[in-house]
Amino acid sequence: MDSNSSPSITIPVVSTFASPFDNSPSVKDANSSVRKPLSLWPGMYHSPVTDALWEARSKIFERMLDPPLDAPPQSELLTKTPSQSRTSILYNFSSDYILREQYRDSWNEVRIGKLLEDLDALAGTISVKHCSDDDFTTRPLLLVTASVDKMVLKKPISVDINLKIEGAVIWVGRSSIEIQLEVTQSTKECSDESVALTANFIFVARDSKTGKAAPVNRLSPETDQEKLLFEEAEARHKLRKMKRGGDRREFENGEVNRLEALLAEGRIFCDMPALADRDSILLRDTRLENSLICQPQQRNIHGRIFGGFLMHRAFELAFSTAYVFAGMVPCFLEVDHVDFLRPVDVGDFLRFKSCVLYTELENPDQPLINIEVVAHVTRPELRSSEVSNTFYFTFSVRPEAKAMKNGYRIRNVVPATEEEARRILERMDAETLQVDKGMTA
Predict the structure, then answer these.
(1) Which residue has the higher pLDDT, 48 or 62?
(2) Of 48, 177, 199, 277, which has the fewest Cβ atoms less than 10 A away?
(3) By three-state DSSP, how is residue 236 classified?
(4) Beta carbons of 416 and 269 less than 8 angstroms apart
């Protein structure tokens, strides 16, 4: 974020496990009127961050929980600056032992899955803050996560050092807004904070009564950095519009050879398994799957399943898939662009299916394992199944794991069907396009 912009509002995060010796009184609002504890509020997913965000924005959220009947929509759009929506949350890991334990993974780092939840929760709060008109006589907007741009982990995130996530609205269209978030943390050797992860969330606004697209408040960038972020986001928005609605591309004649090359080894596995390359494995043999019934505790303020919860569950399955495939502890590197194609409701039967889509073994010090996770909303009574999300995660293996396992090897993944080969090539080409864009930016 731009250092010259207005200071952000920092919200401290505390553990959600109350001490048995804590006899603090009930939570009160800004006017000191007693209201029910957060644990009894409907429409929220309980985590340390969502608790803290709801406390900080209680008036806005309470209004969204109980909007006025037959209230009119917002009649006049406001113009806001990025600094007006800028919000940060601070994890006091160094002093809050219980909070630290809630976020600790097996390698004394922050659990990435929980961090994905928190990023979505903060982005949602920022979007609500920007779209609010502070007029309690109008009906609030329905704001939903539309997509998440690529997230790249720039460095490991320790659970023993204080962590901060800061974000603000950087771009606004007619009914969509983009929020950029930065995760920063110092190191044990240096107190200066550096960026550990950056993510961009796109939210869309809907009229809470009609469900149709609704206009949102305008954005007026002030600093040079804010203007640059706005221009970059505008370019990404135009690119997404160009891609939207396009049919699945057909492979040109020259690319048919790539398909055939991928399928050649797979045919040997299927037809002559004794002669197959021992350093390769069929894609279908890397699959894992889990299922769940979506519960009320996992819903957001609008009654739908919290997007961060879906990302968390997808990440955990992807991590497990990489772990079983490599035979060593994986190291998360990035998650590619994610689209939320359809909402997931309480009571839905959700199935997550994962596989190793392909591996990149050119760099022996950092082999790459590309995982695909597809979330299906299944309705047995209707005999229907729809894709709600497709996630693409990239992992490597931890250096300490490689040091402990001499002669380790990561297998090459080969498809057995043309459909699998097409998925692999389309993902490879998408990654190549991302790299080319990064080099020309």
Answers:
(1) 48
(2) 277
(3) helix
(4) yes
